[in-house]
Design a protein that fits this description.
Blueprint: H1 3-14, H2 28-47
């Protein structure tokens, strides 16, 4: 999911014109949307223990490549 996709979804939800570009758009609305998305991303990074989502595993194989189609 990209920032453009998020902003296009936002535009549909609030009845705004669906943008073709967001980052290079001169419209103030999209500059504010970018700022809010950056704030939300910073909050997610701060609040969530992303390291807790990883698991270490050991895989043992026989050294061959097997593909199924």
């Amino acid at each position: 999911m990209s920032l453009l996709t998020i902003c296009q979804g936002l535009a549909k939800n609030v009845g705004a014109a669906i943008p073709d570009v967001v980052v290079s758009s001169p419209a103030r609305d999209w500059a504010e949307a970018i700022a809010q998305s950056e704030y939300a991303a910073e909050e997610l990074a701060r609040r969530v223990d992303w390291g807790g989502l990883t698991v270490s595993v050991t895989l043992t194989g026989d050294g061959t490549n097997k593909s199924t189609i």
